[in-house]
UniProtKB/TrEMBL annotation:
<feature type="transmembrane region" description="Helical">
    <location>
        <begin position="115"/>
        <end position="138"/>
    </location>
</feature>
<dbReference type="GO" id="GO:0005886">
    <property type="term" value="C:plasma membrane"/>
</dbReference>
<dbReference type="InterPro" id="IPR010343">
    <property type="entry name" value="ArAE_1"/>
</dbReference>
<feature type="signal peptide">
    <location>
        <begin position="1"/>
        <end position="21"/>
    </location>
</feature>
<keyword id="KW-0812">Transmembrane</keyword>
<dbReference type="Pfam" id="PF06081">
    <property type="entry name" value="ArAE_1"/>
</dbReference>
<protein>
    <recommendedName>
        <fullName>Putative aromatic acid exporter C-terminal domain-containing protein</fullName>
    </recommendedName>
</protein>
<keyword id="KW-0732">Signal</keyword>
<dbReference type="InterPro" id="IPR052984">
    <property type="entry name" value="UPF0421"/>
</dbReference>
<dbReference type="InterPro" id="IPR038323">
    <property type="entry name" value="ArAE_1_C_sf"/>
</dbReference>
<dbReference type="InterPro" id="IPR021062">
    <property type="entry name" value="ArAE_1_C"/>
</dbReference>
<feature type="transmembrane region" description="Helical">
    <location>
        <begin position="54"/>
        <end position="82"/>
    </location>
</feature>
<keyword id="KW-1133">Transmembrane helix</keyword>
<dbReference type="Pfam" id="PF11728">
    <property type="entry name" value="ArAE_1_C"/>
</dbReference>
<feature type="domain" description="Putative aromatic acid exporter C-terminal">
    <location>
        <begin position="147"/>
        <end position="306"/>
    </location>
</feature>
<keyword id="KW-1003">Cell membrane</keyword>
<keyword id="KW-0472">Membrane</keyword>
Length: 331
C-alpha cells in the first residue's frame, strides 16, 4: 500500500511537470489521469490505459460532433452525455468515462473546435497514462510469499495426516477440523498471491504454482471427507495399525518434490490384501470392512492427485530449475 501511494504521488507530480513543460492547456488533467491510472498490477494498468485512450478518442469525437451541430450550451453538453456514456459502456471502455468527460469539458469551456485543442487533450491523456505505467512498471515479487505459504500448507496438511494416524492407532477420540480450516485459509491466500504474481511477472513458474495449489485444494477436500469417515470408524485389530502406518507414510511423503508413486503401490497392495481376506460374517463386520475400503480408496485418491501433478508439471518444472542452477554455476 505504501508503495502504491508513492507511485500515485510521483506519477501525478511528474505528469503535471511534463504537461507544463509541453505548455499544454489545463496540465492538471494529466495529473488526474495519472492518479487514476496507477493500478494494483501491470496487467490491470495496461488494460486500463488502453481503455482510457479509446474512451478519450471516443469522447472527443462524440463531443466534437455534438458541439459542432448544437453549439456550446448546457443542452449540448447534456446531449453529449446522453450519447457518449451508453456508447462507452457498450464498447466496454467505461473506465475512461470520467477523465474523458473532463477533456470534453475543456472543449466546452473553450467554446471552440480546433485541431490543436484536440491534440492538447490527447497529449494530456497520453502523458498521464504513460507516466503512470512507467512508474507502475516496478512491482514487488510475491515469489517468497508463495514459497512460504506452500511450506505452511504442507506443514499443516502433514499435521492433519499425523492426527489421523494417531487417531487410528488410539482407536477413539474425535478429529479436530481447526487445522483443515487453517489450510483452506492458506490456500485462499495462496491463490491471491499467485494471481498478483501472474499479473506482474509472466514466468513459467506461474502455471506450476496455479496447478500446485489446485492439487492441494483437491487434496484438502479429500482430507475433509476422510476426517468425517474417521470419526465414525471403530475397529480394533491389525487393520487399525496398518491403516495408521499408511497415513503416517503419506504424511512423510507429502513434500513438494516427493513423487509419492511408491505409496500408490503400497496402498493398492493393502487393498488387495483386504480383498483376499474372508468375507465378513455379520452386518457390523460388513459395515466396518466397507468403511475400511472407503478410507483406503480416499487415501489412494489423495496420493494419486500428487502423483498425477508431479508427472504432469513437477518433472519438467524441477528439470528446468536444475538446468537453470547448473547454468548459473557454470557462468
Amino acid at each position: 500500500m505504501k508503495l502504491k501511494i508513492m507511485k500515485v504521488i510521483v506519477s501525478a507530480f511528474s505528469a503535471l511537470m511534463i504537461a507544463q513543460a509541453f505548455n499544454l492547456s489545463t496540465p492538471s488533467a494529466a495529473a488526474i489521469i495519472a492518479i487514476l491510472s496507477v493500478m494494483d498490477t501491470k496487467k490491470i494498468s495496461l488494460a486500463a490505459t488502453s481503455q482510457r485512450l479509446a474512451a478519450a478518442l471516443l469522447a472527443l469525437f462524440v463531443g466534437g460532433i455534438v458541439f459542432w451541430i448544437f453549439g456550446f450550451d448546457a443542452m449540448s453538453f447534456g446531449i453529449y452525455l446522453l450519447c457518449y456514456i451508453p456508447m462507452a459502456y457498450i464498447l466496454k471502455v467505461e473506465i475512461g468515462v470520467a477523465p474523458s468527460t473532463v477533456l470534453v469539458i475543456h472543449l466546452w469551456t473553450q467554446q471552440q473546435l480546433t485541431f490543436s485543442l484536440f491534440v492538447n487533450e490527447m497529449l494530456l491523456v497520453t502523458i498521464g497514462a504513460g507516466v503512470a505505467i512507467l512508474f507502475n512498471w516496478y512491482m514487488p515479487s510475491y515469489r517468497e510469499h508463495i514459497i512460504d505459504i506452500r511450506e505452511e500448507i504442507e506443514s499443516k496438511m502433514r499435521e492433519v495426516l499425523l492426527k489421523m494416524s494417531g487417531f487410528l492407532s488410539v482407536g477413539n477420540g474425535k478429529n479436530d477440523g481447526e487445522v483443515l480450516q487453517i489450510v483452506k485459509e492458506k490456500l485462499k491466500a495462496a491463490r491471491e498471491y499467485v494471481r498478483l504474481e501472474s499479473e506482474n511477472h509472466l514466468t513459467s513458474e506461474i502455471t506450476y504454482d496455479e496447478q500446485y495449489f489446485e492439487m492441494r485444494r483437491d487434496q484438502t477436500k479429500l482430507l475433509e471427507i476422510m476426517a468425517v469417515n474417521l470419526n465414525e470408524f471403530r475397529w480394533d485389530g491389525e487393520e487399525m495399525a496398518i491403516l495408521s502406518e499408511m497415513f503416517k507414510q503419506t504424511a512423510e511423503q507429502l513434500a513438494e518434490q516427493n513423487t509419492a508413486s511408491q505409496l500408490i503401490d503400497e496402498i493398492e497392495a493393502m487393498l488387495e490384501h483386504f480383498r483376499e481376506r474372508p468375507l465378513p460374517q455379520t452386518r457390523r463386520e460388513f459395515e466396518k470392512r466397507a468403511q475400511l475400503y472407503q478410507l483406503l480408496r480416499d487415501l489412494k485418491r489423495f496420493v494419486q492427485l500428487k502423483v498425477d501433478f508431479y508427472q504432469t508439471y513437477g518433472v519438467h518444472y524441477f528439470k528446468r530449475k536444475e538446468k537453470s542452477r547448473n547454468s548459473t554455476k557454470s557462468n
